[in-house]
Design brief:
The strands form six sheets. A six-stranded antiparallel sheet has the order 3-18-22-21-20-19, with no helix packed on it. Helix 2 runs antiparallel to helix 3. The protein has five helices and 24 strands. The chain is α+β, with helices and mostly antiparallel strands. Among the domains are: 108 residues, Beta Barrel (conserved putative lor/sdh protein from methanococcus maripaludis s2 fold), CATH 2.40.420.20; 73 residues, Orthogonal Bundle (Helix Hairpins), CATH 1.10.287; 76 residues, Efflux pump adaptor protein, beta barrel domain (Elongation Factor Tu (Ef-tu), domain 3, Beta Barrel).
């Protein structure tokens, strides 16, 4: 065959193979299979729920007053100190009394003038009364003198009342404690100009003590007046027993919580302002069988919560809505949606999708232990045939020896 013929046949073969290469290049790539994820699971079961919620509380006086001056002025001195125990009548602070003393002096001078006018009018009335008895003046003239005396008497009484008022104003420049108690706050300092009624000090009156704490709206309705509350100190000590005295009728404007006041014995009460823990018996759950899941198993689905449940037949996961009742530490108490015996994904819920195939995750230690167990079992199975062969060989050997003889 000539060289030209060989070249012609090779070219023809190349043209025949070209469509195959083109079709192979245009064919779609195979779709990669979704990887099978190893997932941690927990088996749903029931356990006792002995929850007794505790709330951080503060010890306060049942009656706490903000004391201020009844007149305006500049504070010149403050005798009260934070935490100081004071008695009724003890001086707490003072204002500059100079202006009020001058006003009292002016009222005293007006009283003296009114007294002089009253005495003069009384003397005129007496003299005109004698003249009327002698018929030297008319009755109308006597009545005018009597009216003048009454007006002077009224002016005198007005001046006396004004003097008493100014005297009180001067006395109001000294702030005194109304009752015995402890100073819990200082709200004004010397040199400050205050208006009448501006709080200067806050005093907690001696007597009954309250433990005050705040609860959310869903629990405020469960606490009733008179229900028992256990109180324990932040730093330990014996537990105290108290009773709910008051539950706020409206929520706090900022925190949207309800204030609860618990009455305790003042004789055994912790110090004012101490931090304590209050445990309302009305909110306690004793030995209630509930289903719990780790919080890592929950995910948000729509407006509620859901978990991934394993379908053991197909080894796939499906979404299951659940209702969360409350929390118990790092676990969520499930009210409905799951049943004991179900296997729920405990971690990595954000990377799964409905119908995804999964395998049960095993730690390295568990996998190593399983591999060792399989190896031991395989070794036992392989050792049995070897021993059987050895026994057979032992039985055949004597027979072969006899046959040779």
């Amino acid at each position: 065959m000539t060289a030209s013929a060989v070249f012609s046949r090779a070219r023809s073969a190349a043209w025949l193979l070209l469509p195959a290469f083109v079709l192979a290049g245009c064919s779609p790539k195979p779709v990669a299979e979704e990887p099978v994820r190893a997932v941690k699971f927990v088996t749903v079961g029931t356990s006792d729920f002995d929850a007794q919620p505790e709330f951080s509380a503060e010890v306060r006086a049942r009656v706490e007053s903000r004391l201020g001056f009844r007149v305006a002025g500049k504070i010149t001195r403050r005798q009260a100190e934070l935490g100081q125990r004071v008695q009724a009548g003890q001086v707490l602070a003072q204002l500059d009394p100079q202006d009020y003393k001058l006003a009292a002096d002016a009222a005293r001078a007006q009283q003296a003038a009114a007294l002089t006018n009253r005495d003069l009018a009384a003397a005129d009335l007496k003299r005109y009364a004698e003249l009327r008895q002698q018929n030297f003046i008319s009755g109308a003239e006597l009545e005018r003198r009597e009216t003048t005396w009454k007006a002077a008497q009224a002016q005198l009484e007005q001046a006396q009342a004004q003097l008493a008022s100014q005297g009180n104003q001067a006395n109001y420049t000294t702030l005194v404690a109304d009752v015995a108690g402890v100073i819990t706050a200082i709200e004004a300092e010397p040199g400050q100009v205050v208006q009448a009624g501006t709080p200067v000090v806050r005093i907690a009156q001696d007597g009954a003590r309250d433990v005050v704490f705040a609860v959310p709206e869903d629990r405020a309705t469960l606490i009733k007046t008179g229900s028992p509350v256990a109180v324990r100190g932040w730093s330990g000590g014996s537990e105290l027993q108290g009773q709910v005295r008051e539950v706020a009728a409206s929520a706090d404007a900022v925190t949207r919580t309800y204030s609860v006041k618990v009455a305790i014995d003042a004789a055994t009460s912790p110090p004012l302002g101490a931090t304590v823990y209050a445990r309302p018996q009305a909110l306690a759950h004793a030995s209630t069988a509930v289903m719990k899941l780790p919080t890592s198993a929950l995910r948000q689905e729509g407006k509620g919560s859901a978990v991934w449940v394993l379908d053991k037949a197909s080894m796939t996961v499906r979404s299951q809505p659940v209702q969360v009742a409350t929390a118990d530490g790092n676990e969520a108490v499930i009210a409905s949606g799951i049943a004991p015996g179900m296997m729920v994904v405990a971690a990595g819920v954000h990377v799964l999708s409905p119908g995804q195939k999964v395998t049960i995750y095993q730690s390295k230690e568990a996998a190593a232990a399983a591999a060792n167990a399989a190896a031991v079992a395989g070794a036992k199975e392989s050792a049995q045939p070897v021993s059987a062969v050895a026994a057979t060989q032992k039985e055949i050997a004597p027979a072969a020896a006899g046959a040779s003889k």
